[in-house]
Amino acid sequence: MTARMAKGKKQYDDSMHGINFAYGGSGMFSTFGPLIDPVHLQIKQFSQMIESGFLSKDLIAESMVLFVVCGNDYTAYGDKHPNDQGILDFVPSVASKIDGSLKAFQALGVKKISITKMLPYGCYPKITSKVNYISCNASENARTILHNKLITDYVTAFKELHPDIEVMMLDFQQAFELSFQGHYNTDDLLFSDNLGFQRRVQLRPCCEGIRVL
Fold it and tell me: Other CB atoms closer than 10 Å to residue 41's CB: what's the count?
């Protein structure tokens, strides 16, 4: 159930099977317009449901938060900055916001959190379409490497401060690599340390996202 669908109901019940606060295209900062709530406003909606009694503290303690950050902040940054100038300086500010969100969940009584690492950004169809999908962009993937390292560091520090909270990292980066390696022999697909393809591959995306103006 979405947060909007929950409005008007007095209390959560098991038939709802969880609540989704996410907005397509959202990020830690404002991304693609005022109709897309950034994460801190989504957490505010979550907090208001607790304060109103719609979600009980016991339910929150028993439940798990799935916290997904997929790179919309970096796409929005690229739209405003030609050639992504300064992008690696922007990554730490995104990671810091994510750390702040973890602390906000802890303050609300959450005891279980799953948080995602980013997929290799330079392998997104938006990027690979520029070279007919035959290779990933290693320089674009540099932000993924930095982002995931910073998130890992923040999560490690958070777990040390809050050993009573279970935090799991969903490693989309590794899943992506393993998925491709399962389709190709090592002679056909080799990943370098910067996640750039060293040789051509033939997989093509099924589809690409579009922006509705």
Answer: 14
